[in-house]
From TrEMBL:
<keyword id="KW-0285">Flavoprotein</keyword>
<feature type="binding site">
    <location>
        <position position="227"/>
    </location>
    <ligand>
        <name>FMN</name>
    </ligand>
</feature>
<feature type="binding site">
    <location>
        <position position="59"/>
    </location>
    <ligand>
        <name>FMN</name>
    </ligand>
</feature>
<dbReference type="InterPro" id="IPR051260">
    <property type="entry name" value="Diverse_substr_monoxygenases"/>
</dbReference>
<dbReference type="GO" id="GO:0004497">
    <property type="term" value="F:monooxygenase activity"/>
</dbReference>
<keyword id="KW-0503">Monooxygenase</keyword>
<dbReference type="InterPro" id="IPR036661">
    <property type="entry name" value="Luciferase-like_sf"/>
</dbReference>
<dbReference type="Pfam" id="PF00296">
    <property type="entry name" value="Bac_luciferase"/>
</dbReference>
<feature type="domain" description="Luciferase-like">
    <location>
        <begin position="29"/>
        <end position="383"/>
    </location>
</feature>
<comment type="similarity">
    <text>Belongs to the NtaA/SnaA/DszA monooxygenase family.</text>
</comment>
<keyword id="KW-0288">FMN</keyword>
<keyword id="KW-0560">Oxidoreductase</keyword>
<dbReference type="GO" id="GO:0016705">
    <property type="term" value="F:oxidoreductase activity, acting on paired donors, with incorporation or reduction of molecular oxygen"/>
</dbReference>
<feature type="binding site">
    <location>
        <position position="151"/>
    </location>
    <ligand>
        <name>FMN</name>
    </ligand>
</feature>
<feature type="binding site">
    <location>
        <position position="101"/>
    </location>
    <ligand>
        <name>FMN</name>
    </ligand>
</feature>
<dbReference type="InterPro" id="IPR016215">
    <property type="entry name" value="NTA_MOA"/>
</dbReference>
<feature type="binding site">
    <location>
        <position position="155"/>
    </location>
    <ligand>
        <name>FMN</name>
    </ligand>
</feature>
Amino acid sequence: MSRRKRQLVLSMFVQQYGTHANAWRRPDQAAGGKPDFERWARLVKLLEKGKFDLAFFADFVGIDGDNLANLGRRPRGEGFEPLSLIAALAGVTENIGLVATVNTNLNQPYNVARQLASLDHLSGGRTGWNIVSSLSEGAIKSFSVRDPLDHAGRYERAGEFVDLAKALWNSWDDDAFDHPDKSTGQFHAASAAHPVHFHGKHFDVDALLDIARPLQGYPVFFQAGNSDRGREFAARYAELIYAAAQNIEEAKSFYSDVKGRMAKYNRDPDHLIVSPGLFYHIGRSRDEAQEKLESFQNAVDVSGMTQFFGVDLTKYSIDSPLPEHLDVPANGQGRWQQAVELARRENLTIRQLIVRFSAVQGHRTVIGTPVDIADQIEDWFVKGAADGFNLKPSLLDDDLEDFINLVIPELQKRGIFRKEYTGKTLRENLGLPRPANPYSRF
């Protein structure tokens, strides 16, 4: 495919209230947490109005219920299962990509392959899969996981899972069902089918998928992993990776490292979009933006935070420095290392580290006027630190509307972000190639 002019990729981590620690307590928020599809639909339509590439839906599945007092301080109950949600959203949107998280530890490849293929057809080719291989204690207890895999084993299973899903999507030619012959009774040619015989360490499947190949060939593959294994997995499979970096040096190092690993898998570095998370505070002046940031950080509730990334810190004073020797968590090892390095670099206490990481989760924060925000985004984009950003507005809907109404026009004026959608599918809008079926004759 011909290379297009490089364009900024914008997505949003869609949450019910926003990332502000107490956003749910605002007077203008509706009381209660029952699922409200109209609210989710309105947010995604707003993103589509802003010409965003995609809306991203995480899935922190599994609650063990061991600490009800602490659990009761967090908003719950309003979230939909992601695949169900994007199926409904596909019917009320036209252009924006819809990305759902599916955990490879808690599902089977055949079922996920047919679900995502179905969603790709239902959405007109706008589906993405955020591949997650983490395994929380809550998920272990919720899904009866008897023998949980270690960090390396989970990535190994995830690789097999994706390989098998791809094989299942390739089990039919693109046009396998396009030429039924009523006169002969031949609905499709036998040569259009490519039975899967997959025998790996984690999966044994002999089958054909029971739905036509996805419109995009495969849904777009998303992933977030900062550990060495996570980066290697991204270099092999991912087409967009969610990253975390607080300064341009960290971002450029991650960017060059993960793209530099792709050659061994015969992949083009341009076929992996690096998208760091981005918190922002927009003000009419820089002072106003700074006040918003301070208000956001001051709202972090550290009461009941006895663990950090699953590491127990109860035996240490919350106002003491982070201890020198701590266990490495089973999940989020790359992010944990970032947090430790931040604490060491800036001599933060445990309380300060929790506030900093709970407020922005290790991601970059930009503050200032709309022009300032656009300047900072453009700087990372042109200097090889990012291909796009995954926005994390602190308050919905105020911060999102401000970004769309004030920052997007600045980015468009600079020629680095679209004014209209040009493609029909998510792949086309992201500038990613459609994978050919390696088993097809033509």
